Each structure stands twice: as structure tokens, then as C-alpha cells.
Fold this protein.
Amino acid sequence: MYKLKKSALPLYIQLYTQIKEDIINNILKANTKLPSIRKMSSDYKISKTTVESAYSQLYAEGYIESHPQSGYYVSKDVIQNFTTFPIKNSNQQIEKMYKYDFYQAKHSEDVFPKKLWSKLHSKAISSINFGSYPNKQGDLSLRKELSSYLSKSRAVICDEEQIVICSGFSDSMFIISNILKEFCSSIAIEYPGYKVVQEVFSLQNYKITNIPILRNGIDLKALKQTKSKLIYVTPSHQYPTGKTIPISKRIDLINWACDNDAYIIEDDYDSELSYNNRPIPSLQGINDNQRVIYSGTFSKALSPAIRVSYIVLPKKLISMYKKIFYFSFSGVPIDIQKSLELFIKEGYWDKHIRKMRTLNKKKHDLMKKAIKEYLEDSVEIIREGSGLTILIKSKININWEKLHLLLEEKSIKVYSTTYDSNLNDNTIYLGFGGFKEDEISIAVKSFATVWFQSIKNTN
Ligand SMILES: Cc1ncc(COP(=O)(O)O)c(C=O)c1O
């Protein structure tokens, strides 16, 4: 039975959609004869034209076929094609919305300056020449703004010619992995570290070597033993441990790269958000050795939704980029690039960062207080004081499976440092960015209730 309602959608679209769904879901099987147009029209009290239009759309898209003098039948081919698609699981693919989501790279809705952005966006629109292609590497004026911001705030040594605007970190890594393919076939990465790097470089057939993190960052001895010519690091704020590579080790790392004709990928993903100390200057800016590929993002301080990241390439690599990617345009839409350019140029970016530092410090302190109050001595805080998250380690015996089930039941989502959220490594991220200030305490309290219900029964 089809449900046809008086709604904004024309009746023939409603009928077409419902029949189509029945076909896709195998309720209407291959070769099934559809009711005649006359019968449909009298059963549902709709005009013959409505039924005709619905059938004709289904026919045009190949869901049904017409058998002369007999009528319409469900097409055999379409069923066979569709059963290979994960239609039945399509609900599982929709991201679940959690009541309390402790994701470490999220902002609450109120943080993004929507009104200002839409004002800048309309100004940006009027400045865009929609009749021509944009700059492949990313809008030149945006790159100029970015290069002066990076040199002022992160001590990065670069000019706009070295910057490529990318659509998120994985895109940045995709470009780098392609440029360096001819130069090396393996990459050393921090362990534990940000899994996306491993995923992208594995896809490009790089051999991955994990380098342990010591008290003061990456284990250089282990790196030297690998003979690798490429290393990925998060020197200012190691992900996920939060450790900082001290200056002496930074210089050792650069010397290693110079001596071995190697490259360092510096992921400076959240340094501008430091609130307990001034941001540590970038590794790239220590000297102009042309050995460091600098990677940054607007996700942490502005918005993860706009998908803007960037890379600063050594001069030699920028000419390789131009050769390899001569056919490719930055994936960031020009209106977003232009709005961002105005946001930086007109001084809003600097103000926004200052606002974010104050707000994040407040949220961080509220989260820390709530952890102490509700989780008491059952956890140890192993990373705090910057970014959008506090990392905790369990000091009690937790039944992780039970915890996972109970959290799902209560619609609470926390994340492990293994990134894929199997809660089995004893450490958990409690991200605070996604909550408003007054939600933090209640979110931690709800988590703590489930936490204590999940203590392992040792009897
Ligand atoms: C270590 C690390 N690098 C980079 C990023 C930035 O990712 P994107 O620019 O794709 O939002 C993140 C975001 O969470 C991160 O944790």
C-alpha cells in the first residue's frame, strides 16, 4: 500500500519514490508486473496522468520495463545491480548523534562567528570572477595573508609561492605522499600517533615504521636505525600524548634530515590554541634548511566544517608539486577561500584566536574540575593544558566491553587513542570543545556514572 499525502511533494514523485524503494529493497521482485495505470488510478483515487508520470520516471531510470500489450514489469537487471549495494545497511552509515560526544576535534555550535562570516562571504562573492578558473594552488591573496600570519605567529619561513591550500589534513598528506613517491618508499611515524597519516601513506604503498614516543618526544635513536628518509612528527604538541620536543632534540632532528637528505613533515595542528603558555615556534622556522614540510589547519581554531588546511613546501618540492599536480585545483571552494582571506586581512582571525584561547582555557578548566570531582582517583590525567581535550588513563580495573555497551546505551561517545575507538588501551580522550561551558560538568558526571558501573568484578 502506498501512502500518498497532500504535501509539498507532487503526488507522482511520492508514488515514484515509494515504488522505487520497494524495488530497491526487493519487496517488488524482478519481473513482477505493476498494476495497470487504470487500476492504480482508481485504487488510489489519483489521476491517470499522475500514475503515468510516476511510471515514466521509473522507466526512464531503468527500474521498470515496458512489455508491449502487457504492461510494466520490474526490471530484472536493476535488481541484480542494486543487490550489490549496501542498501540494507544504509541506516548504519548515517552518523549517530550522541547526547554527549567527547570528540577531541569539535566546537560547540555557538563558537563559529556565523553573522560575521556571512557578511564577509557576501563581500567575497562580489569580488570573485566567476567567469574564470581560480588559482590552482589556492587563492593568491589568501596565500599572501597566510604567509604573513605564519611568519608572525608561528615563525614559519616562507613566501606565498610555497603554500598550497588543501581541503583538510588527509588531502594535505595525499599531496605530500604523491610528491615524495619518487624520492622515498617508506615513512617513519610517531607511535602512538595520528592514524590518518598511516592510512594515507599506506594507500600510496609506503612502508610504515612506527617510532616510539619517549618522555621528550620521538625516539631519535630508533629513527636513525630505520634508514627512512621521511618522518612525520607533531613537535609542538605531540598527538596524542601532548608532549613537546625540546629545542635540542629539534635541532638533532633537523641535522638528521640534512645529513640524510631526508624530509620532516611537521604537523602543527593545534599550536595556535595554546593557552597555558605562548605557542612554541615551529620546527620549520628554526633555520631555512628546506628540509621541513609544514602542515597546518583551520579546523581546530576556526571550524572543522569548512575543510581548509594548508602545506608549506620547501622550494624544491614546490616545483615538483607544480609538475605532478599541474592538472589539479585546490579542493577548497573559491568563496570559502576568499571569505577566509577577508577574515584574516580584516583582523578578525587574530581576534578570534584570542577569543578561542580564553574560551578553551575556561572549558579546559571546567572539564578538569569535573574529572576530579566525578572520576575522583579512578583516573590519571596524562595530557592537559592545551588543545580541545584532556587525556585520561584508567587507574582501576575496567570491563571495557561493558563500558562500551553502557556508553552506547546512554548515548555517550568517548574516544581511545587508537583513533578507531576500541576502548582497549586504557586511555580515553575527553574532548571539551563540542560542549557549551554549562554542559561540561553534566556530561562528565554522566560518563562517570557509567564508568563506575563498569568496574571489573574481580571475584
Ligand atoms: C594530529 C592532527 N593533525 C591534523 C588534524 C587536522 O585535521 P583536518 O584538517 O582534516 O581537520 C587533526 C584534527 O583532529 C589532528 O588531530
Observations:
- The domain at 100-105+356-453 is CATH 3.90.1150.10 (Aspartate Aminotransferase, domain 1).
- The pocket of pyridoxal-5'-phosphate is lined by residues 105, 168-170, 194, 234, 239, 267, 269, 297, 299, 304, 309 (CB under 6 Å).
- Residues 83-93, 419-424 have pLDDT under 50 and may be disordered.
